[in-house]
Design a protein that fits this description.
single chain; elongated; five-stranded parallel β-sheet; 31% helix
Length: 242
């Protein structure tokens, strides 16, 4: 996979060089390039924005500047991702869909966003997804891109040391719609609190049962919205008691 990010603040994407995502690039699992939008401005002041038609607060990023940037970076095989609080919501299913693309281009808006014609024109020749990472407002798309690239990169073949992690995680395919159960490690007693006894019982069925019950309880308490849409066919007889 190849990922290009176009932004006014290239340094905002520096964290992608670190940790799991940075390692994945070094290992050749995907290639990442970050482009400064300002290099596609043509006037003396390198203007990238202007006041909105129809009035209103703030500034809008100009279509012509973005058009030149996308002409240079995107192609027919590109999935263009436009981070915006007005987009469809990112979830694990959408992350997995993005992980299947050959080429992702992220177009980071600042201010009040990008002239809508940029996405509309791009959609004539490539796939375009306007995506939000949640119901709150960030100052720009850059931090949302950090979130999306990490969510995508860990799903690419060979990126996770243990691919099982991607399956058992909250929202992974192994536990559809349930939050992950709590985890414990040494020491066995921490500030007077022992670990749950079942975890050292050696009874694998009992451990699995306990983990599933904890997942269900957690989900019921923290995310009742997920329980409400749980597929009844994924429940077993013992779940009903929880
Ligand atoms: Cl993708 N961008 C901005 N600016 N704010 C957001 C967002 C994206 N997702 C949630 N809030």
């Amino acid at each position: 996979m190849r990922i290009d990010v176009i932004t006014l603040f290239p340094e905002y994407l520096d964290p992608l060089r670190a940790s799991l995502v940075g390692r994945a690039q070094q290992d050749g699992r995907f290639a990442l390039a970050v482009h400064d939008l300002r290099q596609f401005a043509t006037d003396r002041h390198r203007t990238v924005d202007d006041s909105p038609y129809g009035g209103g607060a703030g500034m809008v990023m100009r279509a012509d500047v973005w058009g030149r940037a996308l002409d240079a970076v995107a192609g027919p095989d590109t999935v263009l991702v436009v981070p915006t609080p007005a987009g469809e919501r990112l979830d694990q299913t959408l992350a997995a869909e993005l992980a299947g693309a050959q080429h992702l281009v992220f177009a980071c808006g600042r201010y009040e966003g990008i002239d809508q014609r940029v996405a509309d024109v791009a959609a004539e020749t490539m796939a375009v997804r306007e995506i939000s990472i949640g119901d709150y407002v960030l100052a720009g798309g850059e931090v949302a891109v950090l979130v999306m690239v990490e969510a995508v990169a860990r799903l690419l073949p060979g990126v996770l040391g243990n691919p099982e992690s991607a399956v058992t995680d909250s929202f992974g395919a192994g536990s559809p719609g349930l939050l992950e159960h709590p985890q414990y490690t040494r020491p066995p007693v921490y500030r007077g609190r022992p670990i749950p006894a079942v975890l050292t019982s050696g009874d694998h069925a009992a451990v699995a049962r306990w983990q599933r019950d904890e997942s269900l309880r957690r989900t019921a308490r923290r995310r009742p919205d997920l329980l409400a849409v749980l597929d009844a066919d994924t429940l077993d007889e013992a779940d009903v008691a929880v």
